[in-house]
Amino acid sequence: MEGARIGVRLAAGHAHAALVAGGEVRQAAGRSADDRALSRLLRGLAQGTPVQSVTWDVSAELDPASAGSPVAAVRILPRMPFRGLGSGHPSPLLRALVGRQAAVIGGHDLFGVELAMLDIYALLRDAAEAEAQGLTALALTATGAPGCHDHELVAGELIRDALPQLRVSLSHQVGGLGLLDREAATVINAALLGRAEQVVERCGRVAGGLGPLTSSWFVAGDGGRISAERLRLLPVLGLSATGAAALTGAARLAGVDDAVVGLARPDGLAVGHVRDGLPHVATDLPGPGGVRMAVPQAALTPISGSAAASASAFALLAEHDQHPAVVAVAGEAAGGGDHNRAATDRARAVAARLPSATVLVEPPAELAAIGAAGTEPSAWLDTVLYAETAEELARKRAVVEQRALTLVAESGARLGSERVVSSRALSVSFLRSGSYRLVVRAGGRAEDDA
């Protein structure tokens, strides 16, 4: 059974896992998520079969409302706010996570022009005061960082040298054009750095129990997989991964690469789209606590109401999609438990009201665990650049695309399989001519693909 993979979803002290090989679910199980139980779970699934990789959906383990620690938030601005920094973010979650807020002089415009010199003395003073306050992480958000992140890099290096115990999260590593969305993602990322370290170490240790040839990966919110090192640096990428993994699992079980997918739950459907085997994602969607962050996640449209109402709304979406329609049970296993029986009943009722070409998927295991096993290396970059000519735009675009391909390779892509899935250069109308927002999505086939 070459190329066998295991996908695991950790949630609420429980683990749901599936072993997938040759596109089929060979084994599935679930049990409590303590280390010994997890080890027994994986060994029981493998049953002596060489497992190439274990891919984890740990989004529930990274819930910032329960797992996040208060951090210091520092903005790098070209001038100090006239009325101060205010009372904080409107979100209760962000206010709870920001234990200290400060601003220092510095920053660039989106074209890379320095607006003010970085005040390193104020920066180090604020960082030292944050550490003295007992905070263990700091979120740095600089004006213009999507266009030039020099000040964030310098600030990060200075803080690490002076205060090596203080973890630092830099907003340009998260990406995104909007200052508030980027700052929110950076704060949540910083708040999860300690927890991510624990989760990554634990998952790697458990997966390593299957043998030295078994690698450990993590599902990202964009539906691809990322390395342990990348999740340690950017745990915010692991948020909202369950929906993306479920879409991937539904499409894989239906045997299609392009589809409109209805994830059936007891109270309704969540409708998303899959293209080229990857879920459609967006960066302007509410995340944990309703906070909008500059981080990609699956674009899911909720449809509540009766099965008949769900079917009618889903039929309209499917009619305009021009791709196969798939209705899948989003639960631990089709027919298992009251929750899953209700989801299964809804899926069947919805599918019965749709055209006969609709594919009904009743998975033999938790759908997100199946999707986790089937994820492939991915990368998503969202940045701003300035180009006066088409040739300059093409040259700068190629540099960003190559960076995305490098990230895919670092996530275990088979040599030569890396590809740019989409590359969109959007003219930014509110800036001067020649300003573009560049969004690049890249993917590849994993080394362990049979």
UniProtKB/TrEMBL annotation:
This is Hydantoinase A/oxoprolinase domain-containing protein.
